[in-house]
Amino acid sequence: MNWDIKRWLRHELTSKRTVHRALPAESLKNLTQAIAESEKRHGGEIRLAVEAKIHAQLPWHHLSAQARALQVFSHLRVWDTENNNGVLIYLLFADRHVQIIADRAIDRRVGGEEWSRICRLMETLFSQGEFEEGLRLGIVEITRHMEAHFPHRDSDVNELPDEPVIL
Q1: How far lies 39's CA from each of 5, 88, 112, 140, in Å?
Q2: pLDDT at 59
Q3: Which option is the CATH number for 5-166: 3.10.310.50, 1.10.10.10, 3.40.50.300, 2.10.70.10?
Q4: How confident is the model at residue 79 (pLDDT cuts 50, 70, 90)?
């Protein structure tokens, strides 16, 4: 991860308060509802985590957004689903960079190129200040893949919380 002065300053000036201005309580409620509605249509699990910035004093400060997303994927136990079909949407807010980390069963079926395509679509909306809409679009796109590969069954249970996590 390259740390130029502009990026360093952007991270220094970004806080959870910045995230909450871009994604107020109503937006978080809408995203929670979008995840809950999505999961009624398939057997997978979607988690959303937004990290304000990478803190220079923390041990993961030199990690790439992808490496940090893998840590968050593990920390939130997105891998801990019965069918190995959890998906994490991780937004590093200071960089407006998003990563999708998918557990092995869904990742085998969808693949990295498609996850990257979805991330770029989301980042286009983020660059326009449309954070809720960008995240909602990501949920819609992931839902489409989950429905195709893990259709809803009556025995499905909600294994992970639907609420976004602000780190």
Answers
A1: 41, 13, 22, 11
A2: 47
A3: 3.10.310.50
A4: very high
